[in-house]
Design goal:
heterodimer; A: mainly beta; 7-stranded mixed sheet; 4-stranded antiparallel sheet; about 55% strand; B: mainly beta; 6-stranded mixed sheet; 12 strands; globular
Chain lengths: ~110, ~110
Amino acid sequence: NAGVTQTPKFHILKIGQSMTLQCTQDMNHNYMYWYRQDPGMGLKLIYYSVGAGITDKGEVPNGYNVSRSTTEDFPLRLELAAPSQTSVYFCASRDYGYTFGSGTRLTVV
Amino acid sequence: AQSVSQHNHHVILSEAASLELGCNYSYGGTVNLFWYVQYPGQHLQLLLKYFSGDPLVKGIKGFEAEFIKSKFSFNLRKPSVQWSDTAEYFCAVNAHNAGNMLTFGGGTRLMVKP
């Protein structure tokens, strides 16, 4: 039972490039979330999903997109990366409690 | 919208000192409350949670938290900290009518000196 798996763990992206952060969970949870963590700011919700085919915006969705074609996968896409998107990204899934992935540290230069 | 405040951004303690980290939230309805810990370079791990019942909640590693509804608070405590408690601590709130979203405080970075 792997829980929530995020890839990659680290990535450096150039301004204007695009990339997808992968998130997979094997717990059959309906709810999944993407957060970004910045120093002193806690975690801010980017997007969330309450089930396959359903997604919704969180607090800070600008510059990101998500899809949820299956229960297991909830990829986060960055289009036209900007330095402000340098952050640590955490994916989580929820049943009665939240389970977090190990994070992706992204640097945009 | 719900919000969570952690007033102590950095706390430095010596081993065996007692710890109390403050957490206040702004939401008048029914809430679920959480404390998470993040050790350096690692992901968030659940310390304890409150859903209902006894407002004094005991978690892992000797931590406890008390939900005081009248004060909108959920402070984290530990009687005697250890060097291994050095980490960042996050309070989080899930309001029942807030669209399944978990809102985090800004975090408190705890350093325990041996």
